[in-house]
């Protein structure tokens, strides 16, 4: 119960900032900073040492643990694995940044549109059906974009943070 009360207080503070500052703090900055850390440095080091699959999974688990929230750890881990696979497959951290920005932006938008987000946590309906449906659509679209050769071209000139010896950019 203390966790939910602290979380509710944090959410109300975020709401009081207004949409633009909240977007910068919740969606934009984490998309850049967390992706540089987890997909730029951690994923790159782990894939060099252990290969693609192990590096992606371990960096995803670290990403989930980093969020220090037992209620979001599994979803954050799965997103970390998805973003890691996206960056590794597409050879660019920009795709992870974009996915992270979209995820956090959608979560912020859902929160800002909600009348009382904490009632969903205390009530019998933990997550509204529309949010589950939106999550499934976003995940399916992300998976399609990740593996679709028609949608994106593998552009080896699109490098951020990784040098020419990187296992993320050069395989």
Order of helices and strands: HHHHHHH
The portion of residues assigned to helices is over 70%
The structure class reads mainly alpha
Separation, N- and C-terminal Cα atoms? 48 Å
Number of helices: 7
Biggest sheet architecture: none
Global Rg: 17 Å
Question: What is the structure about, briefly put?
Answer:
With 171 residues, this protein is mainly α. It contains 7 helices and no strands.
What does this structure look like?
The protein has 171 residues and is mainly α. It is 74% helix and 0% strand. Mean pLDDT is 79; it is low at 154-167.
Keywords summarizing the entry:
171 residues; mainly alpha; 7 helices; 0% strand
Give the helices and strands, then pairings:
Blueprint: H1 2-17, H2 19-50, H3 52-66, H4 73-90, H5 93-113, H6 117-122, H7 129-147
Helix pairs in contact: 2-3, 2-5, 3-4, 4-5, 4-7
């Amino acid at each position: 119960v203390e966790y939910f009360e602290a979380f509710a207080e944090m959410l109300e503070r975020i709401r009081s900032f207004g949409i633009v500052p909240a977007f910068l703090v919740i969606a934009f900055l984490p998309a850049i900073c967390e992706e540089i850390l987890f997909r730029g440095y951690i994923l790159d080091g782990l894939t060099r040492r252990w290969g693609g699959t192990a590096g992606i999974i371990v960096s995803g688990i670290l990403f989930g643990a980093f969020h220090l929230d037992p209620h979001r750890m599994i979803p954050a881990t799965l997103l970390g694995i998805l973003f890691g696979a996206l960056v590794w497959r597409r050879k660019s951290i920009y795709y992870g940044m974009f996915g992270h920005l979209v995820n956090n932006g959608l979560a912020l938008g859902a929160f800002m549109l909600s009348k009382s987000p904490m009632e969903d946590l205390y009530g019998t309906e933990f997550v509204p059906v529309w949010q589950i449906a939106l999550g499934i659509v976003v995940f399916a679209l992300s998976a399609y974009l990740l593996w679709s050769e028609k949608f994106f071209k593998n552009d080896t000139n699109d490098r951020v943070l990784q040098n020419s010896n990187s296992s993320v950019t050069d395989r």
